[in-house]
Amino acid sequence: MGRAYEYPKKPQNTVKRYNNRGTYELGPIHSVINSSRVLHVSFAPSPDDPFPAILPMIGFMGSYDYPSAGLDEPLDCYLHGYVSARLMRLARDSEKGLPVCIAATKVDGMVLSLTPNSHSYNYRSAVLQGYARPVETDAEKVFAMELITNKVVPRRWEHTRVPPDKVEMTSTMILKVQVETGSGKVRKGEPHDEAKDLDREDVTSSTWTGVVPVWEAYGEPIPCASNKVKDIPEYLTSYVKDATAKNKSVALEAAEE
């Protein structure tokens, strides 16, 4: 079995604190990006603005040139937005592409220790850096829109009115971020208390320690007032059930060392 693809280590992405939790492998990093409901995208709005801008967005890793590429292979990050949004305008006007950072975090548990200083989360996080450019062709835009729609609920694209009409295509802009580098960080397991506290009977006998698992759970779908489909589709009910069970399993496994 060959070595897994990794992002190159550069000053901006090298994990320093708790570097044993860091990863540069594409698979785990892309998995966090694709499983996170919201991505936070940061960029410099203008040379005169001292504050970086950060936006919650929907995005998905994929490859238009190699659609069958797996999560552990080189991919681009597609971001969905409105055509007149500031981020979109800046990317459109940038000759080399707009530098952006993309961040996502999944929390799997609350880690409760003997001292406040040792409290933590079990988590999986990912950060990407790259250059954002508008997707130029309708074919690639539709490809990206399908990926992003199916991120909301798998197989949703094929169960909607598609393809998008001319107005929808014109008002929607897709950014493709060519990733330069990235990193991930993962924390699993129980609290890691210091020996000086573990040896104190007065502390250990009065302070509960452990992990409270955290997972994303989905409720039963609720039809809207204009819905005319009597039964909830199987693809939706099965996703709600299976995704919730998977999320729970991941959180429970993360609680173990």
Q: What features would you describe in this structure?
A:
- 26% of the residues lie in helices and 28% in strands.
- The protein has 257 residues and is an alpha+beta fold.
- It has one domain: Electron Transport, Fmn-binding Protein, Chain A (Pnp Oxidase, Chain A), CATH 2.30.110.
- Strands 1, 2, 3, 4, 5, 6, 7, 8 and 9 form a nine-stranded antiparallel sheet that branches.
- The longest helix has 21 residues, at 234-254.
- The two termini are 26 Å apart.
- The mean pLDDT is 95.
Reading off the top of the CATH hierarchy, the class is best stated as Mainly Beta
| Fraction of residues in β-strands | 25-35%
Cα radius of gyration in angstroms: 21 Å
**Element order: H for helix, E for strand:** EHEEEEHEEHHEHHEH
Distance separating the two termini: 26 Å
- What characterizes the major β-sheet? 9 strands, antiparallel
The percent of residues in helical segments reads 25-40%
Looking at CATH, the homologous superfamily is: Electron Transport, Fmn-binding Protein, Chain A
Q: Please tell me the total number of domains.
A: 1
- The assembly state of the depicted protein chains is single chain
Count of DSSP strands: 9
Shape: globular
Total helical elements: 7
Q: Mean pLDDT across all residues, rounded?
A: 95
Report the CATH topology name: Pnp Oxidase, Chain A
Structural category is alpha+beta
